[in-house]
């Protein structure tokens, strides 16, 4: 069967409202004047991964629930303008949304609106099967509808990756994702012992490789039973916003992975794309291109 899509991205479509604040945590006050503006733009984790993959030249298809609302229109426009295939399943509760408070040092605090999801939300099994059957790889967001797609994806034989984000290593909600994927990304932020958690993922699941991003410290790569520290990349401009850095890392890693590069080089790609993302304001969506990635890789 023809594999017309390089990566099928499942879940993680939505909009964020970006508010730049004078500091985090934000002290209580009756009001603040936000000179930089308060802006809503399309882009949550699945959107950012899809945009990153497409910018790197991979044929990408995004599948998720979207509302028939102005927020959903923003998501549709993002994909249309960038030539990314999008299959939007109707979501009567509306498009997922969040508010991101961003401090002067680029750190963020995200407020997620959970009212836009219901326990019985599902991505249609027939649609998942059909898209997976024509895809080389599937990247699965850790949303509740995507949890139900994991057995279906496994049956199709497509390889799977997921990003557990700031998992603490204990919350059992994340375990089906951690144990079903062939390649697992996560942040080291909430992990007391990243290596212990990474090895547990390999021990209890299918993953051959686990990557823990560590911000300015780079990343940690566990593959072939060996843990390796990946040095951080130097950002090409001042760091102004860390939003989307992990998604950029995952997209660049997958670019290398699907082009047959060894894990260490894939992770090095990830650090370059993540560093690039930290120089882009949250109000913009400007993923690193393949030309930029390869040029920075070859730079002395």
TrEMBL record:
- Is Kinase one of the keywords UniProt gives this record? yes
Domain Carbohydrate kinase PfkB, residue spans:
6-285
State the UniProt keywords alphabetically: Kinase, Transferase
- Signal sequence bounds: none
Give one GO molecular function term: kinase activity
State the name under which the record lists this protein.
Answer: Sugar kinase
